[in-house]
């Protein structure tokens, strides 16, 4: 090989090595016909495959995603079995592999998601922006015919207030408390977990199931079995035709109330104001649920953790988007 050929070979750049990345769909239709292995009743559920001690109380994280909340609450509540339900198969595989590594101790303390530190969100006047959008939409609707208001594809955020005819019947502001949008921008402080406090703990009280929680929750849990439930950053499902896909609806609350223990708390949080008001409306109009005042949540560790323990919470913090929490409790069911 002559000298000119060698120079040409030296000038050829090396092929770039691209490492495979974990990718999955951000959303999945919960109403589609999918094949899930689910028990006929809670009597057929073998919890021993997930937890060594099934006599402990159960907490449920609906749509747990990548398991951030499970990993955060597990060390703080070691006497509680915390189960997450997720519909996406690839996400469930990811969480299962991480739980295996956590139990083997392969993940160092510095890489654990047990002490999430929330960033200070910028003060954004979302309540003012939403009020302006609602006023503009009201003026626009007065000039249009009724047929123009029956479009199915709703892309404007404020338009959702008008497609949910049950939620806002006449005046779009009658059920919307604009002060509630700035309800809690900063969560209460929490004492961090040190490395020494994790001695002897191996995350055996957290687990995940792949299932459709909107269809099969009652197939897994007995009546009054769940003591706390978490619904964090659910899929907003903007379109009018997709509202029935939301994980919170009046009909689904009946099933949740059946599985929840009287006095149990349901924690909700979202970065979408419309979804926040939808969930608040669904819970407050249900006769078995009552909203917990902010004063009673100051010392609630779970309330502090929902702000920053999940991947969606970190995304909202990076974009300086406000977070809108709401906590509800299940009232005592009167005996007939």
From TrEMBL:
Q: What is this protein called?
A: tRNA (guanine-N(7)-)-methyltransferase
Instruction: Give the EC number(s) under which this enzyme is classified.
Output: 2.1.1.33
Q: Which domain of life is it from?
A: Eukaryota
The record's subcellular locations are:
Nucleus
Q: Does the keyword Ribonucleoprotein apply?
A: no
HAMAP family attached here? tRNA_methyltr_TrmB_euk
| Entry keywords, A to Z | Methyltransferase, Nucleus, RNA-binding, S-adenosyl-L-methionine, Transferase, tRNA processing, tRNA-binding
Function of this protein? Catalyzes the formation of N(7)-methylguanine at position 46 (m7G46) in tRNA.
What is the organism field in this record?
Answer: Streblomastix strix
Q: In which pathway does it act?
A: tRNA modification; N(7)-methylguanine-tRNA biosynthesis
Enumerate the residue ranges of region (Disordered): 133-152
UniProt binding sites for S-adenosyl-L-methionine: 63, 86-87, 212-213, 232
């Amino acid at each position: 090989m002559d000298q000119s050929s060698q120079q040409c070979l030296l000038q050829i750049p090396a092929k770039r090595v691209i490492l495979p990345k974990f990718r999955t769909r951000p959303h999945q239709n919960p109403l589609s016909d999918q094949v899930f292995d689910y028990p006929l009743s809670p009597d057929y559920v073998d919890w021993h495959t997930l937890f060594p001690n099934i006599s402990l109380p159960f907490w449920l994280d609906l749509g747990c995603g990548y398991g951030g909340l499970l990993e955060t609450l597990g060390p703080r509540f070691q006497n509680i079995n915390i189960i997450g339900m997720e519909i996406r198969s690839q996400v469930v595989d990811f969480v299962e592999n991480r739980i295996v590594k956590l139990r083997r101790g392969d993940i160092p303390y510095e890489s654990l998601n047990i002490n999430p530190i929330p960033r200070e969100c910028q003060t954004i006047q979302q309540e003012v922006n939403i009020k302006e959008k609602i006023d503009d939409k009201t003026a626009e609707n007065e000039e249009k015919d009724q047929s123009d208001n029956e479009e199915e594809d709703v892309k404007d955020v404020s338009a959702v207030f008008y497609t949910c005819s049950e939620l806002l019947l006449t005046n779009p502001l009658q059920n919307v408390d604009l002060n509630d949008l700035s309800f809690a921008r900063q969560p209460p402080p929490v004492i961090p977990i040190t490395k020494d406090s994790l001695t002897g703990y191996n995350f055996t009280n957290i687990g995940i199931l792949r299932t459709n929680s909107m269809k099969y929750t009652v197939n897994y849990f007995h009546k009054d079995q769940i003591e706390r439930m978490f619904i964090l950053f659910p899929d907003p499902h903007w379109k009018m035709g997709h509202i029935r896909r939301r994980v919170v609806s009046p009909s689904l609350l009946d099933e949740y109330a059946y599985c929840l223990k009287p006095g149990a708390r349901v924690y909700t949080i979202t970065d979408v104001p419309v979804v926040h008001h939808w969930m608040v409306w669904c819970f407050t109009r249900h006769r078995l649920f009552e909203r917990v005042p902010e004063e009673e949540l100051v010392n609630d560790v779970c309330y502090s953790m929902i702000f920053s323990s999940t991947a969606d919470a970190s995304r909202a913090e990076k974009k300086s988007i406000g977070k809108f929490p709401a906590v509800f409790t299940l009232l005592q069911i009167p005996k007939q």
